[in-house]
Specification:
The complex is a heterodimer of chains A (447) and B (123). Chain A is of the alpha/beta class. Chain A has 13 helices and ten strands. Among the domains of chain A are: 34 residues, no CATH class; 235 residues, HUPs (Rossmann fold, 3-Layer(aba) Sandwich). In chain A, 34% of the residues lie in helices and 9% in strands. In chain A, the strands form three sheets. A six-stranded mixed β-sheet of chain A has the order 5-4-3-8-10-9, with helices on both faces. In chain A, strands 1-2 form a two-stranded antiparallel ribbon. In chain A, a hairpin with a 4-residue loop joins strand 9 and strand 10. In chain A, helix 7 packs across helix 12 and helix 11 packs across helix 12. Chain A is globular and about 70 Å long. Chain B has one domain: Beta-grasp domain (Ubiquitin-like (UB roll)). Helix content of chain B is 9%, strand content 32%. Chain B has a five-stranded mixed β-sheet, with no helix packed on it. Chain B has a two-stranded antiparallel sheet with strand order 3-4. The radius of gyration of chain B is 14 Å and the shape is globular. The N and C termini of chain B lie far apart (37 Å). The relative contact order of chain B is 0.24. Classes of the chains: A alpha/beta (447), B mainly beta (123).
């Protein structure tokens, strides 16, 4: 408590401290047990916390599993359970960064659709002893007469991890740590496993990778982008064909003018890698572990960078279309804050691989080897100069003192819509279906 | 884990979410604190304190400064900011959100378990 400093008021008048939680410490859900966590001024006990989070998760993902043509009435989200059969038109791919959100996402997907535990908090997959504790997606519970899967998604679920250590000199490669996390959800008894697809950021500049995912059309591939920023027309020059993918990546990122551009480019390249990997596996759903807090950060930093259509798309389910397939990019944790995610991870004893903050500058040439000392200096000397890093620090501070505000940011921006639909042709680094309405207008601007 | 010396407290401190990297890469620590802590100037628990300075029961705020001064190996600004934990670091006191226990004002008892979790890894 402290004085407000206004001399016109009584000197002894003190400003009372903001109430962190309403009413009492008893759980607002069961009204029986003492609370263990405060979520936006509401108190929940540990027992009620897990169903609360998993319900919020299923309420976002459940209604969009079936194809869009399904009746809206079939998507009854009572308790996150749907009436009728869940049947996705393709396979499932989960984007995994090693961070808190994607770790919790993987755990929620596994426990909601592949393992069902009577103890919602807890049971690690290997503790499930009988089929009744396994989800409908688990192979042991799948209907045999339906063919190969008989489950919600076709084929085997997969997790895709993109390693970015090549642009951080001396940074630790976490690919094997990520693999271990994914493999921990396997069930040897029933031969159930989740495919692990390790990628590297430089794969976006690797022609052989593009061919492997069927995206060899150079007009739409994000490779060999040499940009001459001294020329206001921003012409593109093909890079030296003898460059390795790592060299091409460094050449590209080092040519970008600002730390914000570097951060944005890295995010876009990761997104391209995930989208084309998902498309090559005929995935109908690509899940990303963006939490409510991260969503607010992305939206505010997007506004600061002039994002319009992309910012709106961030807050809702996106649809990516190719000539012969359609895929939904979903953020099922968008109603779950970073705090709830952290508590879920801690109470479920999840192993967090971790991820490095993206660099603000990248050297034109790759580092020659493992240089932990150099990496320590890089991390130490990094300044928070990118809009994304500054926004994240702002939002984290805001969430500490005003937790409801972070939620309000995401919900308010989610109401924003755009007038026009966009431009046909898409972008090399973030291909998205656009309409033709503005194509001539944009061509006029560029000529 | 009970302390045999009534003038000291034994508490278990754990770090998660990458914070352990700042504390010798060790996730779990057993810390012995004075039960009644003198409040030194600038909250620096490594400095000698004057007899004239007041005393108070050791609370979580004191523990945070103690960890900064005695266990933290590097980058103190990643753990402490403005006299408390940096935004993005969650604190659990005996498996309960510290917001329910009075945050830094919670008076420590012998055998308490305090957990610090970083949420700065993002999505």
């Amino acid at each position: 408590m402290s004085s407000c400093g206004n001399p016109a008021t009584e000197q002894d008048a003190l400003m009372t401290r903001r109430q962190i939680f309403d009413k009492s410490k008893i759980c607002v859900k069961c009204k029986e047990r003492e609370g263990h966590i405060v979520i936006r001024h509401a108190v929940y006990c540990k027992t009620c916390f897990f169903p609360l989070v998993s319900t919020r998760f299923r309420k976002v993902l459940g209604p969009i599993i079936n194809p869009a043509r399904s009746s809206a009435k079939a998507a009854n989200v009572r308790g996150g359970r749907l009436r009728g059969r869940l049947e996705a038109p393709g396979s499932l791919l989960i984007g995994f960064s090693g961070g808190l959100g994607s770790t919790v996402l993987l755990d929620l997907v596994a426990k909601s659709y592949f393992y069902r535990s009577s103890n919602a908090s807890a049971a690690p997959p290997e503790a499930a002893e009988d089929n009744s504790s396994k989800g409908t997606e688990h192979p042991s519970n799948r209907s045999r007469e339906d063919g190969e899967s008989g489950g919600i998604w076709k084929g085997k679920p997969a997790v895709c991890y993109v390693e970015v250590a090549s642009i951080l000199p001396g940074a630790r490669d976490r690919t094997e740590d990520a693999r271990a996390v994914v493999q921990s959800y396997g069930d040897p008894a029933s031969k159930f496993e989740i495919d692990f697809i390790p990628l590297r950021l430089e794969d976006a500049f690797d022609e052989s990778w593009w061919k492997s995912v069927g995206g060899s059309n150079i007009d739409r591939a994000a490779k060999d982008l040499g940009i001459d920023i001294s020329n206001e027309n921003l012409p593109l020059y093909a890079s030296n064909s003898g460059s390795t993918p790592v060299e091409s990546l460094h050449s590209y990122l080092s040519s970008l003018p600002t730390p914000t551009a570097v951060h944005s480019a890295i995010s876009s390249l990761i997104r391209v890698l995930l989208i084309y990997t998902a498309a090559s596996r005929k995935a109908s759903h690509l899940l990303l572990g963006t939490t409510l807090t991260s969503l607010s950060v992305n939206m505010i930093s997007g506004i600061a960078q002039g994002a319009g259509f992309a910012m709106v798309a961030e807050g809702m389910e996106e649809v990516w279309k190719n000539k012969d397939q359609s895929m939904r990019i979903v953020r099922p944790l968008r109603d779950i804050g970073i705090k709830e995610s952290a508590f879920w991870a801690w109470w479920s004893n999840l192993s967090i691989v971790g991820r490095e903050r993206y660099p603000t500058t990248v050297s034109p040439v790759p580092s020659t080897g493992n240089e932990p000392a150099k990496f320590a200096n890089v991390v130490k000397n990094q300044r928070l100069t990118s809009i994304d890093a500054l926004t994240q620090d702002f939002i984290m501070g805001l969430e500490k003192d005003y937790p409801s505000t972070v939620s309000t940011i995401a919900r308010t921006i989610a109401k924003v819509t755009t007038k026009e639909k966009g431009v046909e042709g898409g972008c090399v680094t973030c291909p998205t279906e656009r309409s033709t309405m503005e194509s001539q207008h944009i061509n006029t601007l560029l000529s | 884990m009970a302390s045999s010396n009534p003038s000291t407290l034994n508490v278990k401190v754990e770090f998660g979410g990458g914070l352990e990297l700042l504390f010798s890469n060790q996730r779990s620590h057993k810390v012995t604190l004075p039960a009644t802590a003198k409040a030194p100037k600038d909250s620096n628990t490594a400095l000698p304190v004057l007899e004239s300075e007041c005393t108070k029961p050791a609370d979580v705020a004191y523990l945070i400064h103690y960890l900064r001064d005695h266990l933290l190996k590097e980058r103190a600004e990643l753990f402490v900011e403005n006299g408390t934990v940096r935004p993005g670091i969650l604190v659990l006191i005996n498996d309960t959100d510290w917001e329910l226990e009075g945050e830094g004002d919670y008076v420590l008892k012998d055998g308490d378990e305090i957990v610090f979790i970083s949420t700065l890894h993002g999505g």
